[in-house]
Each structure stands twice: as C-alpha cells, then as structure tokens.
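Q: Structure tokens for this one, please.
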Amino acid sequence: MTSHDRIERNSQDGGFSVTYLSSGVSRSHDDIMLCFDAQCYILDSYYFLLAFRATTDELAGPEESILYFLARCREQVSKMKSGHTLFLPFDLSDEHVGGIALERIDDKYQTTYGLFCQVEGWSVNPEEFKSRADFSTTEFTEASSCELTIDQLVKGLTLRTRRI
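A: Here is the predicted structure, written as tokens:
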C-alpha cells in the first residue's frame, strides 16, 4: 500500500482515529492508518521519524515519533480559539502533503481531510503547525469532512496500535 491508498470503512465507524500498524520491524513506511469519516488512509511515519529524532533523543522509532506528534497536535488544538484555523500535517509524502484542516467554530471543529499536491512532505516541518492559508500557493484538494466536538477530536488524536 502507498499513501494514496484509501480503504472504505463501515459508515457507522465514522469519526477520526490514528493507528500505528506495527509489524514488529521498524520500517517507517505504510505504518500509519488515519481514519477519517468513512475513509482510511495508509501513510508513512518516515518524515516524522527524521524530524523528531533530530530534536528528541528519546524517540527511538516510528511509534514514538507518532506519539510525540500527536501530543503536539493535542497541545495545539487545546490552544485554538473560535474562528481560528490549524492544519495538522499527517501525510508527509515525497509527492504531496496531506492532513487535517481544522476550523474552530464555538465548541465544534469543522474538520477536513485533504491534500496539497504541490507541496512535498520533506519541505514541511511537522513541529510547525500552520493554518491552511499558509499553504496558499497551492490548491487544497478536499477528500472528506465532518464536524467533531473537542472530545471526539482529542480521542482521535490518541494513538492506537494494531499488530499486523
């Protein structure tokens, strides 16, 4: 599978989740499953591993780098005020950057998964959270969207692990 692979999931599953696909071998490719609404996307932890290894000695492997990234996401989401936007870059690929664009509207979050096809993953620092407008030099292609509460969003930003 590649980062372009999408898996349909049961429509009643809905919501949002991040799962580390552990094979017992540290491989950093095709090892993140991001489920959003009725779609699941298979992504790589490779650029997260590179980015966070440089800043944190404790990050021994892909799972730890994803955990670190998700903790930073939760921190950024908790700081959002109504009317603000934030882009969480989950899919750092050689060909594009994909992720979740959030807009806080009162106590809800309009949440959209999509891609910036003209931005390469290696050019994005996952430690620098930006708004979707910061990538305005390229078009954001929306794949799916839903509205989440803060509890649903925080729950989604908690890593699950699945042995494969």
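A few notes: DSSP finds three helices and nine strands in the chain. Helices lie at 46-53, 62-79, 150-156.
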